[in-house]
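Box 3.1. Reading complex inputs
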Amino acid sequence: MRRSDLPRILPWAVVLMIVGGDAALCARSPGDLDRFLINAILALSAFATLHARMLSLASAGFMAIGAYTSAILAVKVGLPVALSVPCALLLCGIVALVIGLPVLRLTDVYLAICTLGFGEVVRILIVLLPGLTGGPTGANLSTGFPYDAMRKTSPAMIALFLGFLIYLFWSLSRSKTGRAFRAIRERPEAASTMGIDVVAHRSMAFLLSAIIAGAAGAFYAHSVGSLDNGDFRFTRAVDVLSYAVVGGAGQWFGPLLGAGLLTALPILLRDSLGASIGFLRDFAQLPNILTGLALLLVVVFLPGGLVQSFPRRTMPHAGRGARPGAQSGDVPPVERAGPVAPSAWGETPLLAVRDLSRVFGGVEALRDVSLRLEEGRIYGLIGPNGAGKTTFINLVSGLDSPSSGRIIWQGREIQGRPPHRIARAGLARTYQSMRLFAEMSVLENVIVGHHARIRTNVLTTWLRLPRERAEEAAAREEASRLLAHLGLSELADQAAGTLAYGDQRRVEIARALALRPRLLLLDEPAAGMNEVETERLGRFLIDLKGKGYTLIVVEHHMDLIMGVCDQIVVLNFGRTIAEGTPAEVAGNERVREAYLGRD
Amino acid sequence: MALLDVRDLGVRYGNIEAVRGLSFSVDEGTIVALIGANGAGKSSTLRALSGLVPPSSGTIRFAGADITRVRADRIVRAGLVHVPEGRAILRPLSVEENLELGAWTRRDHTLIHGARERVYELFPRLAERRRLPAGSLSGGEQQMLAIGRALMASPRLILLDEPSMGLAPVLVADVFRMIQSIHESGTAILLVEQNARQAMRVSSRTIVLSHGRVFREGPSGSLLSNPLIVEAFLGKA
């Protein structure tokens, strides 16, 4: 075996070892099989939230709701499992929606604390309702939940459900929804300005995670045959999270590997230690300590989890047929849904900004800025660093809300609307501090820009409808054409984060154009480009104008600004200090003093 | 002997060769400009020199010692400091705290104090704002701070990655004046700039990179009038 084969073979050896080891353990004591399957389901519930960049510890709580609901319905009401389990999942879904509304506004640690609190509230409710749940001790359980009445599932049933989940996550990973989740995980704000509804996607992920955890709980109840509120403590939520962390939350099969490893390890260690070293048998915590050590080693050496050792697949569809051969690229002309409706006072401008202000804690970043944009022209926005240019772009693209003033897009007020709706209305932007999806390939980055126009959804992907494949292929074709036109074809398969600054800027422009906007907001597109590259960019922008696009360009390269702009607005300390043609602005005394310098 | 001597340097990111077989040197107290198109390997070269990425091949000698696989913090101690692209100042910390971090590798408080006073002399604007959070500075002042922080280690060589990027035209001239005054204090500078024409005007030698290799190298004055370089990298004046 050549040394270069090792990185390719090693991951598969790990998978084989984990799957093989688990299978061997289950063959020896079939009673363990349920536990393996249930933990795998729980791992996927953790994946569902982590995939949307949410650190949720609600899994134990939803597991408890699923377990107790299904058990109560089966034992006390007498429903068959085929009805009690779906009812339990329904309740989990409803609870997830109710607590999701306020909780999903939070991120990171705050979300973790809130969901942790939720889990504890569920457990306290269980304790406070002894008539229904058996109360704080397991003592009531034997009378409350007769063992035989509870044991109603078979491993086959749980395995079937797990198989369904695997198919679901596998197809999700190849659908546009999966791509949207990857975008959200890397750069939520950039995803939103690409027309992706971040809140809706996060709610969907939270709901899915809750239902999956609830199912795991219901299966647990019917498999173990007794319930104790101690089964759903905080530590359970941490266990579930550690499956995903050890396995790696980057790909759907990572948490499954983590669950397989962390379920088997304590059993194996207990058996082998107990058999070989007699005196250690008294030291009951040793297997847990060793398992913790293994967890630590994985986190230190493979921060991305076990899946990190797998070769990265940037292209979910790579290798299927020939690459779309778009050698000579082009940008499609602007699509007009219809001419801008003329109002009673004459032509409505494409974008009108009236008295726009934004105050940050007493500092006026923008003060009473007004602007009228005619379609098919290039507008320059210049001014010293800190003059409010980026604030202006953030307000127009919806990432920030104005303190006062109005933004009117084709006659409709859009200030305060969420960024994904503004993007879908035809305003696209790039970022000064670039926000590409660094882990995705350049081509995938551009395909994310097509999100709003790809009409397939998770359902069509699950059902593998031909339309989905056709739409994906069309998006790839168009994205490749855009890349070719920007001279980026050679870089299409590289991870976007590895590109040089100036190349990343061009990918950002391609990604924004993939939205087929009518207005393009470019925040310092030439930063990091040399003179020759800047000249080429200038020609490209003029070409876009020729195709009907309207542009706002924020730049410090005066050659570019003076060369391409029809109209220039100069900001200083948040106010407009000059406005006019390049010649007028260049000759303006205040502009020379504040910005251009005298020489 | 040259202060910095790079032989056959290679930098790889996975399958991508950013720098291949690059050789050049920087003499004590001189300014050398490193120019080239996007993706030519300029930033990767600087990152390899300061120990932020391990080189895949070649040797880097600094002040006579081999620093090829030496840790980044030890390279700073040896007197080679990197001012990265995008400035990387610590926004919530005050101007003075940012400067003090630049002297992290030094122990002698009188020397640190002296270095700080020299930075304030060089950039009086920073002295005026010493108690303010660095994030509240304007772009040009942040660039001053990034360079000042590098000077706190009293380096013999500073690597400047695009110091004029994202700055208003009126400030770009300031940045090149700063570079000139650092040069006059005797510190050598390896300057990466997209503003190639101006970088070549302040430097004594220029290295033009293309696809990770040296494309042309020579005295800046003669390269400035080389039609090939003008055509490919400088554009019409």
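In summary: The longest helix of chain A spans residues 198-224.
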